[in-house]
Amino acid sequence: MSANIVFTQSLFVAIFNHLPAAFCANTTTFHLLTGSSGFHLPPVCFKSCYYSVMESFGITVFETPIGPCGIAWRGSKIVGVEIGEADEKETRHRLRERFAGGEYAEPPAFIRQAIEKVRALLDGASPDFSDTPLALDSVPDLNRRVYEIILELKPGETTTYGAIARRLGDVSLSQAVGYALGKNPFPIIVPCHRVLGSNGKVGGFSAAGGTATKLRLLNIERARTTSEPDLFGGLPLQERPQTGW
What is the rounded distance in angstroms from the CA atom of residue 11 to the CA atom of residue 17? Predict the structure, then answer.
């Protein structure tokens, strides 16, 4: 009898942890599953879904020099950034698609700080994102390692997929690096636009606008390095000097 109860509870936990956050966060649902007629499981059993009930899950849209951008957060960490959409309506739509269950909310202090840094970068400044809290624990390990490497790049610096693969200790990982960058949930903050293909080719960019958005970001950063004219502004991107690895 007790074995059947353990099995039932284990099965319940396995299912519950894969339910959408919006479903878990429904207080009526939560009471029906865990209340007087439920299993009385300890909170630790609910793992990520339990914490999604307890933590705030917010999204907001903000204006920047390149148009509306969006940001999403869960608890005390940023879970995603949206850039490059045509207008605010489309930005809101994409946020809803990417972060189902997130609610539009007044951004907390750490999100307001991140927004100001994004605006500053897109206005030609060089803000420091090193203290910006990102939910890197929510991405695959290889992706996290790739993101940590490109977080070292400063505005105006670029590197290549191959160089990152070498940093990872395996030159055959160039394609995997490109895949990880294509899945980057934190564009601009994790500056995947600073990663180019071989011989300085632009390479892909998964945010809205594709390579046009990528080139726009790179041009903003190259123009902002000093108050002097950009000596290389008239050259095609693949002919410009590069820094980094």
Answer: 10
